[in-house]
Automatic annotation (TrEMBL):
GO terms of biological process kind: cell wall macromolecule catabolic process; defense response to bacterium; killing of cells of another organism; peptidoglycan catabolic process
Reaction(s) the record says it catalyses: Hydrolysis of (1->4)-beta-linkages between N-acetylmuramic acid and N-acetyl-D-glucosamine residues in a peptidoglycan and between N-acetyl-D-glucosamine residues in chitodextrins
Keyword terms, alphabetized: Antimicrobial, Bacteriolytic enzyme, Glycosidase, Hydrolase
Record protein name field: Lysozyme
InterPro entries, per the entry: Bacteriophage_GH24, Glyco_hydro_24, Lysozyme-like_dom_sf, Lysozyme_dom_sf
Family statement: Belongs to the glycosyl hydrolase 24 family.
Entries under Gene3D superfamilies matching the protein: 1.10.530.40
Hydrolase recorded as keyword: yes
Keyword 4Fe-4S in record: no
Superkingdom, natural source: Bacteria
Single GO molecular function: lysozyme activity
Length: 162
């Protein structure tokens, strides 16, 4: 299974393409980033990095590489069958989060505990800003969309067991 073209496009369109390296929280703030939010390193960009340009083709190549890595990790770590919507949501979540959180979600799924997986996914709505976790409003919608197929499956399972 691979991420659907629709999910790839939707995820890609959530980020504005910046054809250079930049600090993700503005001038002298955040982390050095490039393209469509590709993390380059923790902390602000050096003056040399801020002069570095990138092209649209490089962004597309990196995006496809990072999607393929997220797909690989999902396939490796999740042992239960997933439908396309679940796979798409989990790849998006994996692409956008850290391994520790991913492992908690994968473990819940492997126990067939889709409700807990959805709850964990929905709760990852803060971003590290200069060493402090801050609420990121854009993540609330993203996490709700990614976790929806798991919440739906958990609700169906609950209704069938009644």
């Amino acid at each position: 299974m691979t991420m659907s073209p629709e999910a790839r496009a939707k995820m890609r369109n959530t980020e504005k393409a910046v054809l250079k390296y930049y600090n993700d929280l503005g001038r002298n703030k955040g982390n050095c980033t490039w393209g469509i939010g590709f993390y380059h390193h923790r902390g602000v960009c050096t003056p040399e990095e801020l002069k570095r340009k990138v092209d649209a083709a490089s962004i597309d190549i990196e995006y496809n590489k990072r999607i393929a890595e997220a797909e690989r990790r999902v396939k490796l770590k999740v042992q239960v069958p997933l439908n396309q919507a679940q796979f798409d949501g989990l790849v998006s979540f994996t692409y956008n989060t850290k391994n520790v959180t991913n492992q908690e979600v994968y473990s819940a799924l492997n126990r067939n505990d889709f409700a807990t997986a959805a709850k964990i996914m929905s709760g990852v709505i803060k971003s590290d800003v200069d060493g402090k976790l801050k609420m990121a409003p854009g993540l609330i919608t993203r996490r709700a969309e990614e976790s929806a197929p798991f919440r739906n499956a958990a609700e169906i399972s609950r209704q069938e067991s009644k």
